[in-house]
Amino acid sequence: MNFKQSFKLAVKSLKSSKMRAFLTMLGIIIGVASVIILVSLMNGLSNEMTSRFEDMGTNTITVNVMGRGTNRSLSVQDMEKLIEENSAYLEQYSPRINASVTVKYETTSVDTTANGVNENYDKMQNIAVPEGRFVQFIDCERRQKVCVIGTYLAQKLFGGMNPVGEHLKINGSAYTVVGVLEEKADSEESSADDIIYIPYTTATRLTGNASIGSYYITAADTDEIETAVAIIKSKLYSVFGDEDAYRVTSMSEMIDMVDEMTGSIALVLVGIAGISLVVGGIGIMNIMLVSVTERTREIGIRKSLGAKRKDIMRQFIIEAATTSSAGGVVGIIFGIAAAYVAGILMDMSVAPSWNAVLIAFSVSVAIGMIFGYFPANKAAKMNPIDALRYD
Amino acid sequence: MIRLEEVSKIYRMGENEVRAIDGITLEIREKEMAAIIGQSGSGKSTCMNIIGCLDVPTDGKYYLQGRDIGCLKDDELAEIRNKTLGFIFQQYNLIPKLNVLENVELPLVYQGVPEKQRIEIAMDALKRVGIEEKRNNVPSQLSGGQQQRVAIARALAGSPPVILADEPTGALDTKTGREVLDFLQKLNEEGNTVILITHDMGVAERAKRIIRISDGKIVSDSGHSVSVSGERKSGYEAERKGSYEF
Lengths: 391, 246
Ligand SMILES: Nc1ncnc2c1ncn2[C@@H]1O[C@H](COP(=O)(O)OP(=O)(O)O)[C@@H](O)[C@H]1O
Ligand SMILES: [Mg+2]
Prior knowledge:
The complex is a heterodimer. Chain A has helices spanning 3-16, 18-55, 76-85, 121-124, 137-141, 151-158, 200-207, 225-240, 251-294, 296-304, 309-346, 354-380, 384-389; strands at residues 60-65, 90-95, 97-105, 108-117, 131-132, 146-149, 167-170, 173-180, 195-199, 214-219, 246-250. Chain A is an alpha+beta fold. Chain A has 2 domains: 3-51 and 257-389, no CATH class; 97-211, no CATH class. In chain A, the strands form 2 sheets. Chain A has a 6-stranded mixed beta barrel with strand order 3-4-9-6-8-7. Chain A has a 4-stranded antiparallel β-sheet with strand order 2-10-1-11. In chain A, helix 2 packs antiparallel against helix 12 (354-380). Chain A is elongated, with a radius of gyration of 32 Å. Chain B is α/β, with parallel strands linked by helices. Helices cover 32% and strands 26% of the residues of chain B. Chain B has helices spanning 44-51, 74-83, 100-111, 115-128, 144-157, 174-189, 201-204; strands spanning 2-13, 16-28, 33-37, 59-64, 67-68, 85-88, 162-166, 193-198, 209-214, 217-221. In chain B, the strands form 2 sheets. A 6-stranded mixed β-sheet of chain B has the order 6-7-8-3-9-10, with helices on both faces. The A-B interface holds A 1-2, 4-5, 12-13, 16, 297-298, 300-311, 384-385, 388 and B 49, 52, 54-55, 74-75, 78-79, 81-83, 87, 89, 93-95, 97, 106-107, 109-112, 115, 154, 158. Magnesium ion is lined by residues 44-45 of chain B.
């Protein structure tokens, strides 16, 4: 008995009782669909996070200084010296001081994040300033009260007006807007466009804390990031003498961490969804056992005509695998559709992976074969004369 | 060709045992047409099932084409049924969800014949029994006589040397029954060994050799109708070895 024959027969018996076939497949459909939905959402999440990190530049290294004892920070001069001495590995640096602030223009006020940086920061982070200019060396030197704003703030505070040259208030003190950043995320609230850059020297005043807690450093070569990280670490160790006083993270390390984290969350979720696949498999086994009993006479007839054990076996296994893979296909289609709907509802990006689809399909075929084995074996081992006499 | 030696089939049901057939010794030669006749429950079907390798005897030996059937495995028996034996049952035993052509193709499917050739052979078999125009119908759309003809076509499709028919006319009216018997006779004349099982003397008389069984034992046998060399004997010259009278 060849494969094509068995397959045609399996399709025929699926068609002849559609409702039963559907109910049998339901477990597999739900299982496969939930796997696809979860993987698509996790994938989307991971892609989104990765691309955010990549926007910051994969050769970026972040240094956070917690300090130790009275020695609480690394001065800008020290950092400058470190970069100069290791110019083969380290390219540029910028302090980074974050502060939650309230920005006010005339009567409109908005809460946002102010970032204190130096003149290198726009090149390091590929920040474009189509209108006006970015923070410059002289601004930092003279502690100028200037700022560069994101498009969200530009729209929110100034409406259609050109903000460059206008004055706004950050936590009550007046700043001149010298530039508007390029739009990055549809000018939405709390997106990359909801941001304001000021000279780091001005920022220390704003926060009332003269020490600089974190730096961004760019490595000269993406392939040498590890060496760059090691150089920075050894410098920091020589200053603080304690590994817990600072943290040095490279962006590529962060991306790896995110991938790993979302990957293991996905694995757990898929594992849980996998349980419903097993339940689906048991459903198939149940129906196949019923089917074998119902078709005892057919099995007897086939045996009387010369069907061997493996012929009968193959017929029922193919039937079970056809049922479960049909369920798998329906589940995949349903899962992808549902993932997109969920993505829209939860405002998440969705990325169905072909690997997940392929694996889900193979798993559903395999489940049919595994759970079809026992009923098929039962059919194959029937005694021809008993099967023929059965009614 | 077919040789049973002291074959018994005993069914045990709790305390009591039923001797469905009880020490049957029988030889059927190639190209013979033999009828096994007996009342209902006398053991005819049990006997045929053993000859047909569908069932195994409790005791005794069964040789088919010189092979000891008792020591064969399931799959070897399946192969013998496939290549050597063609069955015709009282209840036709067609597979309801397959159409006529697909039913007739089955023995060829299990012989591993490729599809194109399979359809050709199956169509030939259907033509021989004159039912080729129903090839796309399913069994439930056919009359009893037509279904039995499909069953005969299926038995022929694998071109087995031995045809076993268990009450083939049992569910048919006299006229269609006669057609079926005519056909079996024709097959025998063409060189097939035919074993016909019936409770009806009128049917049994179509065969050149009549074996009567009762309570699982042979009570009379009209003797071989074919010589060892394979030549046919005329009816009245047939060996009378029946030591049993009835
Ligand atoms: N599977 C079985 N279990 C128990 N008894 C059986 C079975 N098959 C047949 N018999 C018994 O064996 C005897 C012969 O049956 P069978 O060969 O079918 O007779 P026939 O075909 O001549 O009518 C009967 O008494 C029947 O009840
Ligand atoms: Mg009977």
